[in-house]
């Protein structure tokens, strides 16, 4: 059994209210997370994009930067990178074997590690071995009891946009979820938050920062002027300085403000921030291709907040185009409200399955969307590539593949191959 097969053979979730397992595991590995510099990033939406932008800025500053994200899109190794290079297979195998020895030893004591515990441990060991100057550490689920929260302190904590997601684990209200996300805030360590939080979320963030005497920075949207925003990216002026990003969608501008404020808090100069942001890339976040004569957009919008942001951008960029959507979600997402949002979108829809161990129910999603629409503009094709092929054969101008990152990531290489690496529209 290779490293990836072994990791995926472990339990997905453990007890919510404990970090004991990951603490025990890391202790047996000589606590590699100790004395490293972390930027810790939590939130419902935008974590990956903000992580990518901060990562790019610090690479531009000539730092050795570890980047820990989830899930992967095309290759497991993507989850653990140093200066944008995924962990090599040989190193992944070697470190995982070492971690597995300790996992097995803990199991004899009745301490059982989850998939994410092991992935975190492998990441920490690798980043320590590579002597990273800074590690951009994305939370997996929640924050307070997420395995990444085993770290003692942070250079900065970033709280991205908070909405309703993973309610079975994090709580049924935005306030409850915000409380879990704010669990990453460390005493007296600075915090940057997404500027357009709901009042319920912002109240919890402010309260948490006061309780822990953690300085809070909220980007000033009144000092933001958007110059342009299109399918090639955005240009804007913030606090009198101009920036450009290749990530698409106005919501990415607000994500970018979090990265900008974080960088300035940590002493990075303007020219480095500007250059780093321009080089930042993040797959499957309104990522645009041209394939078989059509514009194809890949976007991992998989909850109501993300889908709303996606459709705001799609409506703006493709107002005069005919759209077809390929859509799939896993079971632990807000299927009811997400189906309602996509049901109201202009265009036809193909529902597809999601290749994930977390499970999906595409037939249920198909029936809900079709019943809400009340017409024949919705169909169901379980095979992901077949669904995309079908969409490309419709009379649409634009094909949008959206939903679970597991599904969107699974078809990305297929779409890229069709486009012959030509993303020019």
Straight-line distance between termini: 43 Å
Radius of gyration: 21 Å
Strand content: 15-25%
The strand count comes to 17
Biggest sheet layout: 8 strands, mixed
Helix count equals 15
How much is the average pLDDT? 91
Going across the biggest sheet, name each strand in turn: 4-3-2-5-1-6-7-8
Give helix % range.
40-55%
Content-based structural category: alpha/beta
Structure description:
There is one protein chain. The protein is α/β, with parallel strands linked by helices. It is 41% helix and 18% strand. It contains 15 helices and 17 strands. The strands form 3 sheets. An 8-stranded mixed β-sheet has the order 4-3-2-5-1-6-7-8, with helices on both faces. It has a 6-stranded mixed β-sheet with strand order 12-13-17-14-15-16, with helices on both faces. Strand 7, helix 8 and strand 8 form a beta-alpha-beta unit. Helix 3 packs across helix 10, helix 4 crosses helix 5 and helix 12 (335-343) crosses helix 13. The longest helix is centred in the N-terminal third of the chain and has 19 residues, at 89-107. The radius of gyration is 21 Å and the shape is globular. The N and C termini lie far apart (43 Å). Mean pLDDT is 91; it is low at 421-425.
Q: Can you tag this structure with a few keywords?
A:
alpha/beta; eight-stranded mixed beta sheet; six-stranded mixed beta sheet; disordered C terminus
Short description:
The chain has helices at 3-8, 20-28, 47-60, 89-107, 115-129, 167-170, 174-181, 199-211, 250-265, 270-279, 304-317, 335-343, 362-373, 384-393, 405-419, and strands at residues 38-42, 65-68, 80-82, 85-86, 134-138, 156-159, 191-193, 216-217, 224-230, 233-238, 241-245, 287-291, 294-299, 323-328, 348-351, 378-380, 398-403. With 425 residues, the chain is an alpha/beta fold. It starts with a helix and ends in a 6-residue tail after the last helix.
